[in-house]
What we know:
transmembrane, 5 helices, about 80% helix, DUF2231_TM, transmembrane helix, disordered C terminus, DUF2231 domain-containing protein, membrane, mainly alpha
Amino acid sequence: MFxxxxxxxxxxxxxxLAVLGTLALALRPAWRLRYGWLLVGVTAVAxxxxxxxxxxxxxxxxxxxxxxxxxxxGDTLIWFAAPLLVLVLAMVLLERRRSGATRDGDGPGAPGGxxxxxxxxxxVVAVVVALGTAVQVYRIGDSGARAVWGGSVGASSAR
Length: 159
C-alpha cells in the first residue's frame, strides 16, 4: 500500500516539527494566535500518518522479517501523537477564547482570570507530552535503524 520508509520519514519530520512548534507556542503565548492553526495542521497530519506508518511497517514485516523492538515501539507512537494533537488544539482554542475575553475587558480570559491559569496549565502539560513524544520518536527511529543496519531483518530478502 504505502512505502514504509517514505511514510516513516514524513512522520520523522512532521512529528518533531510539531514538538518544536508546541514548545514555541507554550513559551510564547502570543504566537498561538498567529501560528496556532498551522501547528494544529502539522500535528494533525503527523498524527494521521502514524497509523499509516505502522500498517505499512506490518506489511514490510511480512516480507522481510520481524524487526523486534522497533515494531513494538512503533505501535506506541499514536499514544504520544494523539494527546499532543489534543493539547495543541486546546492551547490554540484557549488562547483564542482568552484573547476574545480580554478585548471585552472581563471574563475568564481577563488578566489574572481563571482562563489564564487554565491556558498555562495546558501549556505545561503540552510541553511534557511534547518532550515525551520527541524521546519516543528517537527511540523508535534508533531501534529501526539498528534493525535495518544491524542486519536483524532484510538480509535474506535482498536477493
